[in-house]
Specification:
The chain has 112 residues and is mostly helical. The protein has four helices and two strands. Helix content is 67%, strand content 11%. A two-stranded antiparallel ribbon has the order 1-2.
Length: 112
């Protein structure tokens, strides 16, 4: 099975150079599946993987964004706890922080 790749040094330049590689049918299907999962064409997926070492999917970008939001929320809760006078409010805030940490764990498992 042959897969033809094209690449260019400049993004606005036409990609007119081809590289042929040999794959098994299973390898081809795996590449097609991974490119589909990341919402990219096969050529784009292989080009990014080869040139950048790894292709970053739209899902990964969204998860990173969500992790940053959760981190900001945890920081806000920690600041709030330091200003609280009663133990009951501290326990409530610690419970909220625990909920955010569980969300982070869930997202982390999805990334791995």
């Amino acid at each position: 099975m042959f897969v033809t790749l094209t690449y260019s040094v400049y993004m606005k330049e036409n990609r007119n150079i081809s590289i042929k590689i040999r794959l098994t049918e299973a390898e081809k299907e795996q590449l097609l599946q991974r490119s589909k999962e990341e919402g990219k064409s096969l050529s784009s997926f292989i080009r990014e993987s080869a040139l950048k070492g790894r292709s970053i999917s739209k899902t990964d970008v969204q998860m990173i964004y969500e992790l940053r939001k959760i981190g900001a929320n945890i920081n806000q809760l920690a600041k709030h706890i330091n200003m609280l006078p009663s133990d009951e409010n501290i326990l409530y805030s610690l419970d909220r922080i625990n909920q955010y940490l569980l969300e982070v764990e869930t997202i982390n498992r999805k990334l791995l």
